[in-house]
Write a structure and sequence with these properties.
single chain, 210 residues, mainly alpha, two-stranded antiparallel sheet, 69% helix, globular, transmembrane
Length: 210
């Protein structure tokens, strides 16, 4: 399975670390104190070295990309993974790596950039995309809401993911709206709903014998 996806794995891995090349080109223009974390007023409140900003973040994302991709390819139930969803798994992290580093480089070069807005738009769009495909995910061990009762009951799995699909789409829309409001309370509430409500719903189905 890995052999059949070597080209895709290589391409996505190279794209994940491609911001390093941009960082080397911009090296002399980037500050030694590199902003990597931001508060809700778009002010930087966390810094690292320029070396970490250019090399560290892309390499961390590369490690995550390889872990997620290889785990998906090694899944005993990988045949249940929809082809489009499988492709999405390969491409999410490379796209995030490029977008996140564009934001970071722009900010550290002194451009007036609303980080909170762009990050919320990016994450909101990602949630909508995931929600659009979540109901198509069949039982597997790497993608989806993997709970003991969803993995042992196909009906529980299917119902949980159909409900979660709408939750993710709605959460993505609210996340996009929150980009213009930038409320930490609303952000926390969205994340709680996205990951807690489907689990509770799935457990209720389990208690009902589904």
């Amino acid at each position: 399975m890995i052999r059949n996806n070597r080209k895709t794995l290589l391409l996505t891995s190279l794209l994940t670390i491609s911001p390093i090349l941009a960082g080397l080109i911009l090296w002399n223009q980037l500050p030694e104190k590199f902003a990597i974390h931001f508060s809700n007023n778009n002010g930087a409140d966390g810094w690292g070295s320029k070396f970490f900003g250019v090399f560290g973040l892309p390499l961390i994302l590369l490690a995550l990309q390889l872990f997620v991709s290889l785990a998906t390819l090694a899944d005993p139930k990988r045949k249940n993974i929809n082809t489009r969803i499988g492709k999405m798994v390969f491409w999410i992290i490379p796209v995030l790596s490029i977008c996140v580093n564009i934001f970071l480089y722009s900010y550290n070069l002194g451009y007036d950039l609303d980080i909170g807005l762009w990050v919320s738009l990016m994450i909101g769009f990602l949630f909508i995309v995931i929600g659009n495909y979540l109901h198509k995910v069949k039982q597997n061990f790497t993608i989806g809401i993997r709970l003991p009762w969803t993995l042992t009951s196909e009906e529980n799995w299917n119902r949980t993911h159909r409900m979660a699909s709408w939750i993710f789409i709605l959460g993505g829309i609210i996340m996009i709206i929150n980009g213009f409001v930038q409320s930490y309370w609303l952000l926390f509430s969205i994340l709680m709903v996205l990951f807690v409500i489907p689990c509770i719903y799935s457990f209720i189905l389990y208690k009902k014998g589904i």
